[in-house]
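Progress report, Aim 2. The chain analyzed during this reporting quarter is listed below.
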Amino acid sequence: MDLFTPLTGFFAAIQKDARISITHIGIYAAILQYWQQMGCPRPLQFYSHELMEVAKISSKTTYHQYIRDLHEFGYIRYEPLFKSRVRSKVFLLF
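Predicted structure tokens for the chain:
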């Protein structure tokens, strides 16, 4: 799957969703960038600090709130693993 398929689907879906902010978009873009860098795995596995670096987010509270929002709003499926040696998972839904 190429990068534009999930990006196009995401932007089509958020067009009329007033809940989505620039921070949500930034995290989603960071997920796509990291996903592509890792060879498009399904699911994408990462540590929060890895994705925070790509998204340019320095607050763990902000990161966790916005990635949870993307999950709750139905844009991704997020499986957090709050263990220091185990990576969290994200499934792209578009």
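Helices lie at 4-14, 22-37, 48-55, 60-72. The longest strand covers residues 88-92. These observations will guide the mutagenesis work planned for the next reporting period.
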